[in-house]
């Protein structure tokens, strides 16, 4: 089916809300049944990777299931991809949430150079609505107010080395990367599926941008 969106289910994530949001936008979507469906000819045109939970647990799950390599191959081929929450954080090299243990460091997908860091303040996680400042060049935030509110829940934030990939920022103890875009790759720290009209518009923007090539 043309323009079919695949939603990766690796065992953690607010998948029901994501699917409901896509349905409200009349976007065709179904769950990815296995990493082999991310290969060319697997039937999907676009992929969403939503997730919650611990960086190390999520990454180990992706490695064991075979999704890690399949996701890397999908992104390296510059095929449309949207990461949500930990789906953004896992794109980076490493995380303070997963320090070296038993002689092994749990590495991320290594798609975007950088590290995931813990907020420096005591009041974590950040839970609730927060203003998100978008860069004018962003496709994700097209048509949204310059400081729209989105829903966040996280204790760690992405700190990419290459700041040119950052397309949206928020503040919580410090100013941090709330969204990134590079080619067909996009990811957000907040939950668009829980962010009302602004979140739906962002999901629609992502889908429309990929349709336009």
Q: What does it look like?
A:
The protein has 213 residues and is an alpha/beta fold. It has one domain (5-212): Class I glutamine amidotransferase (GATase) domain (Rossmann fold), CATH 3.40.50.880. It has five helices and twelve strands. A nine-stranded mixed sheet has the order 2-1-3-4-12-11-10-7-8. A three-stranded mixed sheet has the order 5-6-9, with no helix packed on it. The longest helix is centred in the C-terminal third of the chain and has 17 residues, at 196-212.
Summarize the structure.
The protein is α/β, with parallel strands linked by helices. 24% of the residues lie in helices and 32% in strands.
Runs with pLDDT <50, length 5+? none
N→C terminal distance: 18 Å
Percent range of helical residues: 10-25%
Number of helices: 5
Assembly state: single chain
Tell me the number of strands.
12
Strand % is 25-35%
Structural class: alpha/beta
CATH class group: Alpha Beta
For the largest beta-sheet, the strand count, sense and barrel status come to: 9 strands, mixed
> What is the mean predicted local confidence, pLDDT?
92
> What gross morphology would you assign?
globular
Rg to the nearest angstrom? Answer: 16 Å
Query: What is the CATH topology descriptor?
Result: Rossmann fold
Question: SSE string, helix = H, strand = E?
Answer: EHEEHHEHEEEEEEEEH
Spatial ordering of strands, largest sheet = 2-1-3-4-12-11-10-7-8
CATH architecture: 3-Layer(aba) Sandwich
């Amino acid at each position: 089916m043309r323009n079919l969106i695949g939603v990766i289910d690796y065992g953690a994530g607010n998948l029901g809300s994501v699917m409901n949001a896509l349905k409200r936008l009349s976007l065709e979507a179904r769950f990815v049944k296995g990493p082999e469906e991310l290969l060319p000819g697997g039937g999907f045109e676009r992929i969403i990777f939503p997730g919650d939970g611990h960086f190390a647990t999520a990454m180990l799950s992706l490695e064991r299931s075979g999704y890690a390599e399949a996701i890397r191959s999908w992104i390296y081929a510059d095929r449309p991809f949207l990461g949500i929450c930990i789906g953004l954080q896992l794109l980076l090299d490493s995380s303070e949430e997963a320090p070296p243990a038993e002689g092994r460091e749990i590495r991320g997908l290594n798609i975007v150079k950088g590290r995931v860091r813990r907020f420096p303040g005591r009041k974590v996680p950040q839970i609730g609505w927060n203003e998100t400042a978008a860069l004018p060049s962003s496709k994700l935030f097209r048509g949204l107010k310059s400081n729209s509110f989105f829903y966040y829940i996280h204790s760690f934030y992405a700190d990419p080395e290459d700041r040119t990939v950052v397309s949206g920022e928020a503040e919580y103890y410090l100013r941090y990367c709330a969204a990134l875009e590079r080619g067909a790759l996009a990811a957000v720290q907040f939950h668009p599926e829980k962010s009302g009209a602004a979140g739906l518009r962002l999901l629609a923007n992502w889908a429309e941008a990929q349709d336009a090539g």
